[in-house]
Amino acid sequence: MSGPLSPVSARRVPTSALLVSAALGAVQALVFLAVVPVTSVLAAASPPAYALVAAVHTALPFLARVVTRVPGMATLAAFVSGVLTVAVSPIGLLGVVPLVLGGVVLDLVLSLRRGAVVRPGRVLLAGAVTGVVLFVVALPVFSPEHLVPPVLIGTLLGRVAGEVAVAGAVLAVRRLLWRAGVAR
């Protein structure tokens, strides 16, 4: 039996959430293309500045999760973005890993209940946790001259500040979409 209240239908992901998330992932790929020339230079020249700017790579997956209110949508949007940017990423296929990892962390920190409104504090926490995780993931690719406390601390702070700023922007966009009647 698969009626409106059956367990099978309760677990299905709404098509609208999948489409919105995939579309936001595609737009995120365009954002990636726009900032990759800057982030490529910053990664070598100034890891703290790179960390601050690179936070933009989680913006639309973050928005996908917050707007659709469906767990897993940040991961889906990040995956779509990653697949679409493989050819232009300075690190190729490996570039998918931090993008998807960012989406996974966002999905795990935000409410796991479908349809639950995510409170602003939780959104900001998700940004901060994502910043810390992405900082740790980046450590193996740091050059030896950047593995010094001032650069490491600056990069961690830049990553967290960037992700929290993205979280704030996502909250503002969600509020605007809600007022416009686009998001629930």
Task: Characterize this entry briefly.
The chain has 184 residues and is an all-alpha fold. Helix content is 71%, strand content 0%.
Protein traits:
8 helices; mainly alpha
Rough shape?
globular
> Distance between termini?
30 Å
> How big a fraction of the residues is strand?
under 5%
Q: Could you estimate the helical fraction of the residues in percent?
A: over 70%
The SSE string, one letter per element, is: HHHHHHHH
For the sheet with most strands, the description reads: none
Q: Tell me the Rg in angstroms.
A: 17 Å
Number of helices: 8
The parts where pLDDT drops under 50 for at least 5 residues are: none
How many E-type strands?
A: 0
Overall mean pLDDT:
91
Secondary-structure-derived class: mainly alpha
